[in-house]
Amino acid sequence: MKRMGKPKLFLFIGAPGAGKTTIAQAVAELTGAKHLWADAERHKLFPRPTHSKEESTELYTKLNKTADYLLGEGRSVVFDTNFNFYIDRKKLRKIAAVNRADTVLIWLTTPLALSKRRAVSPPTTRNGYDTHMSDTQFDDIVCKLEVPRNNEKFIKIDGTKLDHERIKQILQL
Q1: Rounded to whole angstroms, what are the CA distances from 95 to 12, 77, 79, 171?
Q2: Residue 159 placed within a domain
Q3: Interacting residues of 39 by C-beta distance below 8 A, sequence separation 6+
Q4: Structural domain boundaries, residue 98
Q5: Are β-strands 34-37 and 8-13 bridged in parallel, bridged antiparallel, or unpaired?
Q6: Roughly what angle, to the nearest 10 degrees, separates helices 86-98 and 53-72?
Q7: Within a domain: 69
Q8: What is the pTM of this model?
Q9: What percent of the chain has pLDDT over 90?
Q10: pLDDT of 131
Q11: What is the CATH number of the domain that holds 72?
Q12: Residue ranges of the chain with per-residue pLDDT less than 70
């Protein structure tokens, strides 16, 4: 496991099923960064999650504070959730900057047909959680995805075949 000097905040963009959690887990293992997994935290806070706006606000307020604290302590953070909205990425980059941490934005560009198959097809359990994602829910998320802007530095990765060695090479870990 490689320890990094300056703390880093890893953020992800991509469709459901693109491989965000797979790469997040690998990055955490390879770097020693703290893995903040939004799906797992949601299930800890809400045994029967509804994904309501209020629930999501509570969850992300807690996760943002945790990321802020860890970065302030000089620890790197893998923030495993979908940062498909520019405004959310901007907010997290500001948290990183205040804590003198670098932000690493990873855009998973897995083919949509494969991502959709992973996210929607039975079994409906993904990453250990029952998601019940429908075709419509998948399509709604994907059509709202805001690709990185010209002012955003990012690493583009096809999540078709992700393994530790490939991730290590791409991210230069």
Answers
A1: 16, 12, 12, 22
A2: yes
A3: 21, 80, 81, 127, 129
A4: 8-170
A5: unpaired
A6: 30
A7: yes
A8: 0.90
A9: 71
A10: 59
A11: 3.40.50.300
A12: 1-4, 122-132
Compute the distance between CA of residue 144 and CA of residue 152 in angstroms, rounded to an integer.
18
Does 3 map to a domain?
Answer: no
Q: CB–CB of 130/67 below 8 Å?
A: no
How many structural domains is the chain composed of? 1
Q: In this predicted model, what pLDDT tens digit does every residue of 66-107 receive, in sequence order?
A: 999 999 999 999 999 999 999 999 999 999 999 999 999 999
Token pair belonging to 96: 């990183």
The predicted pLDDT at position 47 comes to: 86
Considering Cα of 138, then 140, then 143, then 146, what sign does the dihedral take? Answer: negative
In this structure, is residue 2 part of a structural domain? Answer: no
User: Which pLDDT score, from 0 to 100, does residue 89 have?
Assistant: 97
Q: What is the DSSP string of the chain?
A: -PPPSS-EEEEEE--TTSSHHHHHHHHHHHH--EEEEHHHHHHHH-SS----HHHHHHHHHHHHHHHHHHHHTT--EEEES---SHHHHHHHHHHHHHTT-EEEEEEE---HHHHHHHHHSSS-EETTEE----HHHHHHHHHH--PPPTT---EEE-TTS--HHHHHHHTT-
In this predicted structure, what is the pLDDT of residue 123? Answer: 59
